[in-house]
Amino acid sequence: MFTVRCILRSSAWRHRIRPQNRMSTAPHSLAAVCQVTATPDKEANFSACKQLVEDAKERGASMVFLPEGFDYIGSSREETLSLSESLTGDTISRYTQLARKLQVWLSLGGFHERGHEWETDRRIYNSHIIINDEGDIVSVYRKSHLFDVELPEKGVSLKESAFTVPGPSLMSPVQTPIGKVGLGICYDLRFPELSLALQRHGAEILTYPSAFTVATGAAHWEVLLRARAIETQCFVVAAAQVGRHHEKRSSYGHALAVDPWGEVLGDCGGDNPGMMLVEIDLGKVSSTRRNMPVQQHRRDTGFYHSLEKT
User: Fold this and answer.
1) Which residues belong to the active site?
2) From CA 196, how far away is CA 136, in angstroms rounded?
3) How far is Cα 97 from Cα 88, in angstroms, rounded to an integer?
4) Closest CA to 36 of 130, 108, 128, 93
5) Domain 29-300 classified CATH 3.60.110.10?
6) Can you give the three-state secondary structure of the chain, one letter per residue?
7) CB 115 within 8 A of CB 125
8) What is the pLDDT along the chain (310 residues), one digit of tens a residue?
9) The dihedral of CA 175, 180, 186, 187: what is its sign?
């Protein structure tokens, strides 16, 4: 029996078990998809995330996914920049030690990394870091699509490029205990070219750690995640920020897991921090692709650019 267990945290732990008819998977294929409410308090954020990682490991997870802004969400441009660190700083060092101690893989989805020219331009990267169970950083993807959006009727006004440098390239999918994981971050979700590129290079699981706004999340979050799963025939896991971070910003929540057929396996809701445990059955990836061989039916790149020649 396949189960997704969604464990929410408020004043007490609450358990919601959603059984679904799925074949059991191979050992070491349990992923924990987390939902947190980060604030500008880095120490409190680490404590909350550490508890989630420890609980996930205790429940058998071999890889834990944390959302964009897991380290903090600042209340101003100045605060966001002042709290940033390098990859060799205290925050990532603590997570590498945690991964090593617990022998668990970590997806840290959206770290405020000081840019290569920090001393002169005071700009940062939004970086998705994969740490293995020995505490080694095995991949760093820097977010390539920045969220510069003005939706006055929705009360949304964010300009990520004011302090963030876009990443220079995609990163190859990472072989992990749950399968080959392709890395994106939040707004990258809206660009199918990215997910298809990762799928072509072997991704079996796509991950989009996010801090979606309430307005855009309610409109687009689930449908975009399901679309990315369906078009690539991959699992999609999306850790999320939830609730009020400070007086200027709140996030939608609903950390989600989707299978390669586009079925939602679990949803952590829009109210509280917590996590869900999801079994990743790579046989589902193989059977979905075999039964509907979309990638084999795809035409060559030139075909899709043929309109540009007319």
Assistant:
1) 68, 143, 186
2) 28
3) 12
4) 108
5) yes
6) CEEEEEEEECCCEEEEEEEECCCCCCCCCEEEEEEECCCCCHHHHHHHHHHHHHHHHHCCCCEEEECCCCCCCCCCHHHHHHCCECCCCHHHHHHHHHHHHHCCEEEEEEEEEECCCHHHHCCEEEEEEEECCCCCEEEEEECCCCCEEEEHHHCEEEEHHHCECCCCCCCCCEEECCEEEEECCHHHHHCHHHHHHHHHCCCCEEECCECCCHHHHHHHHHHHHHHHHHHHCCEEEECEEEEEEECCEEEECCCEEECCCCCEEEECCCCCCEEEEEECCHHHHHHHHHHCCHHHHCCCHHHHCHHHHC
7) yes
8) 334 545 554 332 333 323 333 333 344 489 999 999 999 999 999 999 999 999 999 999 999 999 999 999 999 999 999 999 999 999 999 999 999 999 999 999 899 999 988 989 999 999 999 999 999 999 999 999 998 888 888 777 778 888 899 999 999 999 999 999 999 999 999 999 999 999 999 999 999 999 999 999 999 999 999 999 999 999 999 999 999 999 889 999 999 999 999 999 999 999 999 999 999 999 999 999 999 999 999 999 889 989 987 6
9) positive
Report residue 239 as tokens.
């850790």
Six-digit token string for 92: 């990532």
Q: How far apart are CA 7 and CA 274, in angstroms?
A: 6
Query: What backbone torsions phi and psi does residue 75 show, to the nearest 5 degrees?
Result: -95, -5
Closest CA to 109 of 31, 216, 8, 3: 31
